[in-house]
Amino acid sequence: MKDYSTVIIEDEKPAARLLMRKLNDLGLDHVEMLHSVAQARKWFSENACPDLIFLDIQLSDGLSFEIFDGNDINSSIIFTTAYDEFALKAFKMNSIDYLLKPISQDELSFAIDKFERLRDDRQELNLKQIKEIFNNNHTNFKNRFTVKIGQNIKLINIEDIECFYSENKGTYIFTKDSDQYLLDYSLDQIEGLLHPEHFFRISRGHLINISAIKNISIHSNSRLRIELFHYPSKDVIVSRERVQDFKTWLG
Fold this sequence. Notes:
The chain is an alpha/beta fold and 251 residues long. It has seven helices and 17 strands.
């Protein structure tokens, strides 16, 4: 049994729970899960730094670097990220390792072994450098979501999503393959994670992809009705107060 403490900072709860189970399988039992910048800042203000942090970069309420603003951090960090093209050199230079999602058990085991080898000989982490590289080389928008399907985690790329919608207090993804999945986000949170050139919040209940629009027609009370290529609902309506902004968004 491992005797060091571990924190997972990951906003997608299915991915966080799956990572925790994988860590448990490797003998790490002292695992804490945190899901937002605000929650993590509160936790770190009340607890000692753990031995090891699994850190996702982009959380629902901001970049995870913000967690450590004004705080000294002496934990080892393994980045967990879906970004496989930018700043990987910086991750290697400034952390024990980085793991690309979806995280395999073998890669996780290798990263843990590396942490144990380098635990007493690690260099000071330069989060500021990584944050600057991130901001200079990548827009801060999600390019994929993870959803839980049974005991598995599925990656859904942004370009494969027709819309996000709310129904019966749940928030769902609807894909171009006519599949739908429940998310752990609210529409308000999702809206801030998407590139505004590609997605628009047309109402309280729908957030749509511009590439999924099949037809736009006039609806009652100065509103607009949207027909998407695969989404079956006939009630995709641009609310009256958002019609002008929607037309501007369309260009």
